[in-house]
UniProtKB/TrEMBL annotation, chain A:
Protein name per Swiss-Prot or TrEMBL: ABC transporter ATP-binding protein
Source organism of this protein record: Arthrobacter silviterrae
Organism phylogeny: Bacteria, Bacillati, Actinomycetota, Actinomycetes, Micrococcales
GO-annotated molecular function: ATP binding
Keywords: ATP-binding, Nucleotide-binding, Transport
Annotated Gene3D superfamilies: P-loop containing nucleotide triphosphate hydrolases
Span of domain ABC transporter: 42-289
Lineage: superkingdom: Bacteria
Keyword Nucleotide-binding tagged: yes
One Pfam family cited in the UniProt record for this chain: ABC_tran
TrEMBL record, chain B:
Protein name: Branched-chain amino acid ABC transporter permease
One Pfam family named in its UniProt record: BPD_transp_2
Recorded superkingdom: Bacteria
Key words, A-Z: Cell membrane, Membrane, Transmembrane, Transmembrane helix
Membrane topology of the entry: Multi-pass membrane protein
Transmembrane in keyword set: yes
Disordered: region residues: 1-34
Chief location: membrane
CDD domains: TM_PBP1_LivM_like (cd06581)
Transmembrane annotation, as ranges: 57-74, 86-107, 112-131, 143-163, 172-194, 225-243, 274-297, 309-336, 348-369
TrEMBL record, chain C:
Protein name: Branched-chain amino acid ABC transporter permease
PANTHER family linked to this entry: BRANCHED-CHAIN AMINO ACID TRANSPORT SYSTEM PERMEASE PROTEIN LIVH (PTHR11795), HIGH-AFFINITY BRANCHED-CHAIN AMINO ACID TRANSPORT SYSTEM PERMEASE PROTEIN LIVH (PTHR11795:SF371)
Pfam family, one: BPD_transp_2
Membrane protein topology class: Multi-pass membrane protein
Keyword tags: Amino-acid transport, Cell inner membrane, Cell membrane, Membrane, Transmembrane, Transmembrane helix, Transport
Keyword Glycosyltransferase: no
Main location, first listed in the record: membrane
Claim: Transmembrane helix is one of the keywords in the record: yes
TM region(s), chain numbering: 38-62, 69-86, 98-124, 136-156, 176-198, 232-253, 259-280, 287-306, 312-334
Family: Belongs to the binding-protein-dependent transport system permease family. LivHM subfamily.
Location of this chain's protein in the cell: Cell membrane
Organism: Arthrobacter silviterrae
């Protein structure tokens, strides 16, 4: 099916983010989500994280609604990435719960959390350097594959089927994030911007219900950031829910539907961008002089 | 881990896409094209890739036929005679190649440093010995059956050792396997049923007598043993290739490159590490059974841990992660002391030094080649290549306009 | 390991049960002598373990070649003492001249080991660090370097152990529960503990020691803070070498016929096991792990009735520790070891 999309996508008009709608459709997820659009997809309940004497997260609670782009912001050391790691199973929370579609994720192994539908990217890019871009994405797709070692060894029909569909879907995803022409390049040889996009494509490949992006625009110039915002919007329009950690206020304000603000491990605000923008607590804690950031 | 140097300058996609499929043995049609670095034999590799499919198959068939005929031709210069019987040397080389292919799964694919591989080789040898030698009190089975049995038993040991240690950081594995290699030898000495230095004599061999009523698979007759080992080697290569171009191979390489990221991408890292370890162990056990069958005698003296390091040298010499490299490395490590008997006593020094020098100056080994990780990637890559070519042609026609892309 | 073998190979235990015995009376009878001897061996393990622990703490590398750093020290001791006229039987010298001779041997051993460690770091590891090589490459280089040194010695000195040298005749010092503690045991344990305390002080108090801890915690930040990372790394290797040299003197004292090209190999594995047992990267852990492993090995050997079992026991301990408490008894961080 995506064979034709792939070829037609090549000739279609590509917008500024390198995204085109036909391709987006081919890359779109095929999955069932238990909750309806606008309902709570992820619930973070009283999440506390303690490292020795340091209280990194103090009783954090928030929800991610299906279909939204939620921003998670806060000054350096506020606990954003810690929160992320506690959600995706890298850390075991000291107390509190993370629920995905009502299912508790505490103590679930990382790869199972990913299969349950919570995928992430890394702040410092962590691609598989010796693999091509396409292979990187296919590793993500493998999260949904069921071929066993025996199946691969003997090239059983399921293996053949999955391998073929993986190529098609992998290429579609690369096309979707705009780096299909670099599919055969080793990921460590990719330019920086393409590496960031590849990380997103690889995370999308696991067919997540929630896509968690950890500072995806780090190191980008304003034009690239603009393209990235466009891409994130397209991802959401495609039916994904997005959790975005970001430093750049302009990007966060421009793209998110709602923002949670952390400071010193505590949640200090949770509202739509226009309110957050005016919230004096947020301004004093994080933004300093509002004119500086929002002029 | 990756077995290559640090950051390299950016390549253009186009430059990298010159590469093509370069499987040396039995590549099924439709295998992927991929990017590779140039090794010392890089020119050779490129020529290989430019060949059309049919010619590749023709070359492969010739190579395989030549490989089978090697002990019969006994080419001068290459021959190890008069110092060592050449067909027997061929058998040794084939066994070492098989060992290297097995260890390559562990080190080259999954990035796990196993320094006690000799232990699996030893377990395989003892299985063959204890199930066929008249010196053993166990039940007896035909020799050929010991090959799969040895594989199963060593896989079991691989899992037994792997499950506790593979949960840990990779470098602990190195020391635990090193210890395990030594322990198996000590246990062979201590446990009376394993008969220490006395060992087991007159191991079984495959059936068949020649015209003079002498067994075809006699201890001193290297050629049939070599053919047997070579056949098994080719089968193992085909199966290893299947694994490589599948989810399994991709997951292994992902673990090797960045274990945490792999886990985050939904790879059950522990499970796949245990699989790599067990598969490696199984191939090691099989090689042990083949070697001891030909030698006809097993005791505790042959399973030094130092030999394990030679196994690692074999994998690294050829280029970790590369099956063809592993075969080359294994055969070379076995061949050099047999051919150049004057330096045979220094083999440990030579290969120890070679290990250091390769790692310091050329960590991707003699045959630098990347794994093929997609079973049906060729079509997609070709399309990308065509597209980039078209793009660059367009860019040439209108310089400057697409420079920003 | 052992129970599993029993279940896997039932025939082995039925057809001849003698390969594994639990000789508890013998252990009770020899308990204290096994304890003192175990502590003596443990002290030697601990000194070597420190070398592993320090390098691991700073570089996150199992320096497989550390066993060869140690064995070079043994050769240093052996050559010095042979040159000074020591032989298989105890020398007929005054206490003063024995002390002088041993000090000379110690200095040579320390120099030999430290120099080996220095050269190893510069030739083998530094080039890898420069190009930011992956961990596996470091490990393979380490094992290759270990091999190279081992078989260079083999080439020069051959496969047989060097002639045994007795440094002095151990004299009984005091009596504990009817078991004599001799001067040799006492000297080794006390000297080793003193050296470890000094090392620990050095790492926690001195400027260089702070640098070592800083690099262990976070090399990049340490560099930003003005710590010369390269200098710290080489210093760490040299300290490990010095301690290995001292261990070499005690080792030759305890096992006079143990100087052999591959003599460091098993001891190296045990010392590493000791470091892991105590908590790798942790200076006190190395001492604790060394002593414990010495004791466990000795008890195990008597209980199971064959000296080969010490190695098996040490290995089983290593696997059990990794399985049950991979961070070791005292935890792992060199950077955080303050005291």
């Amino acid at each position: 099916m995506s064979e034709s999309n792939e070829t037609s996508g090549r000739h279609a008009d590509v917008d500024i983010a390198g995204v085109d709608t036909v391709v987006a459709e081919a890359a779109a997820p095929e999955r069932d989500i238990a909750v309806k659009v606008g309902d709570d997809l992820v619930e973070v309940k009283n999440l506390t994280m303690r490292f020795g004497g340091l209280l990194a997260l103090d009783d954090i609670s928030f929800t991610i609604k299906r279909g939204e782009i939620l921003g998670l912001i806060g000054p350096n050391g506020a606990g954003k990435t810690t929160c992320f790691n506690a959600m995706t199973g890298v850390y075991k929370p000291t107390s509190g719960q993370v629920l995905l579609e009502g299912r508790v994720l505490n103590g679930v192994k990382q790869h199972k959390i990913t299969r349950a539908g919570l995928a992430r990217t890394f702040q410092n890019i962590r691609l598989f350097g010796e693999m091509t871009a396409l292979e990187n994405v296919v590793v993500g797709l493998d999260a949904r594959h069921k071929t066993s070692v025996i199946g691969a060894l003997l090239r059983l029909p399921r293996h053949t089927r999955e391998e073929k569909s993986a190529i098609e879907r992998g290429m579609a995803l690369l096309e979707f994030v705009g780096i299909a022409d670099q599919a055969a390049t080793l990921s460590r040889h990719l330019p920086y911007g393409s590496q960031r996009r590849l990380e997103i494509a690889r995370a999308l490949a696991t067919d997540p219900k929630v896509l968690c992006l950890d500072e995806p625009a780090a190191g980008f110039n304003p034009a690239e950031k603009e393209e990235l915002m466009q891409l994130i919007r397209t991802i959401r329009d495609d039916g994904y829910t997005v959790l975005l950690i970001e430093h750049d206020m302009k990007l966060v304000m421009g793209v998110t539907d709602r923002i949670v603000v952390l400071e010193f491990g505590k949640k200090i605000a949770d509202n739509v961008p226009s309110v957050i923008r005016e919230d004096p607590k947020v301004i004093s804690a994080y933004l300093g002089e509002p004119e500086d950031d929002f002029a | 881990m990756s077995m290559v140097d640090g950051p390299t300058p950016l390549h253009t996609a186009k430059a990298d896409q010159a590469a093509e499929d370069r499987e040396a043995v039995g590549t099924p049609p439709g295998s992927s094209a991929a990017v590779r670095r140039k090794g010392w034999f890089g020119g050779l590799g490129e020529k290989w890739q430019e060949l059309p499919r049919q010619k590749q198959w023709a070359v492969l068939i010739i190579v395989v036929v030549l490989a089978y005929l090697l002990p019969v031709i006994n080419p001068p210069l290459i021959s190890t005679e008069p110092g060592n019987d050449f067909p027997l040397a061929c058998q040794t080389m084939a066994v070492w190649a098989l060992v290297a292919v097995g260890l390559n799964v562990v080190i080259g694919y999954a990035g796990l440093l196993d320094l006690g591989y000799i232990a699996f080789f030893a377990v395989g040898s003892y299985v063959a010995a204890m199930l066929t030698s008249p010196d053993s009190t166990f039940l007896k089975i035909p020799y050929l059956w010991t090959i799969p049995v040895a594989m199963a038993v060593t896989m079991f040991f691989g899992v037994l050792l792997g499950v506790p240690t593979l949960r840990l950081r990779g470098d602990y594995l190195a020391i635990v396997t090193l210890g395990f290699g030594e322990i198996v030898r000590i246990l062979a000495t201590i446990i009376p049923a394993m008969k220490g230095q006395v060992g087991f004599q007159n191991l079984g061999h495959p059936p068949g007598l020649d015209a003079h009523g002498v067994p075809i698979f006699a201890n001193s007759n290297g050629t049939p043993w070599y053919w047997l080992t070579l056949t098994i080697l080719i089968i193992v290569l085909l199966l290893a290739g299947n694994l490589e171009r599948s989810r399994v191979g991709r997951n292994w390489i992902a673990i090797r490159e960045d274990e945490d990221a792999a886990e985050t991408m939904g790879v059950p890292t522990f499970k796949y590490k245990v699989w790599a370890f067990a598969i490696g162990a199984g191939i090691g056990g099989m090689s042990g059974a083949l070697m001891s069958g030909q030698v006809g005698f097993v005791n505790n003296q042959k399973f030094d841990v130092v030999t394990s390091v030679l196994f690692v040298a074999a994998v690294v010499l050829g280029g970790a992660g590369n099956k063809v490299g592993a075969i080359l490395g294994g055969a070379l490590v076995a061949y050099i002391p047999l051919r150049f008997t004057a330096i045979a006593d220094y083999k440990y020094l030579i290969f120890g030094l070679a290990l250091c020098l390769i790692m310091i100056f050329r960590s991707h080994g003699l045959l630098a080649a990347r794994q093929q990780l997609l079973a049906y990637g060729r079509h997609a890559y070709n399309e990308v290549k065509a597209r980039t070519d078209a793009k660059s042609a367009k860019a040439k026609a209108a310089p400057g306009k697409e420079a920003s892309l | 390991m052992i129970p599993t073998l029993l279940t896997v190979l039932p025939a082995l235990s039925t057809d001849d049960n003698s390969w594994i015995t639990f000789d508890i009376p013998s252990l009770m009878q020899n308990f204290w002598s096994a304890t003192f001897d175990g502590l003596t061996f443990g002290s030697i393990y601990a000194l070597v373990a420190l070398g592993y622990t320090l390098v691991y703490g700073v570089l996150n590398l199992i320096n497989f070649a550390h066993s060869e750093v140690f064995i070079m020290g043994c050769y240093g001791v052996w050559f010095t003492l042979s040159f000074l006229g020591f032989g298989p039987s105890a020398p007929n010298l005054s206490l003063g001249s024995i002390v002088v001779n041993l000090l000379l041997a110690l200095i040579v051993a320390v120099c030999a080991s430290a120099l080996t460690a220095f050269v190893l770091e510069r030739l083998a590891y530094k080039p890898l660090r420069k190009r930011n090589a992956p961990r596996l490459v470091f490990l393979i280089t380490a094992i290759g370097a270990s091999f190279t040194i081992q078989y260079t010695i083999f080439l020069v000195r051959g496969p047989v152990p060097e002639q045994a040298l007795t440094m002095f005749k151990p004299t009984p010092i005091f009596d504990v529960f009817g078991t004599i503690v001799d001067s040799q045991q006492l000297l080794i344990v006390i000297a080793a503990v003193i050296m470890m305390v000094v090392t620990e002080r050095f790492i926690s108090k001195s400027r260089t020691g702070r640098g070592i801890r800083a690099v262990a915690q976070d090399p990049d930040t340490a560099t930003l803070m003005g710590v010369n990372k390269e200098k710290i790394i080489i210093t760490t290797f040299v300290i490990g070498g010095i301690l290995a040299g001292a261990a070499a003197l005690f080792y030759v004292m305890k096992i006079p016929s143990g100087v052999q090209y591959n003599g460091g190999f098993i001891l190296g594995i045990k010392a590493f096991a000791a470091a892991v047992l105590g908590g790798i990267g942790n200076v006190r852990g190395a001492l604790l792990g060394g002593l414990l492993l010495g004791l466990i090995g000795n008890y195990g050997q008597i209980l199971l009735g064959n000296s080969q079992w010490t190695d098996v026991v040490a290995f089983v301990v290593l696997v059990l520790v990794l399985l049950l408490r991979p961070e070791g008894i005292l935890g792992t961080s060199l950077g955080r070891s303050r005291a």
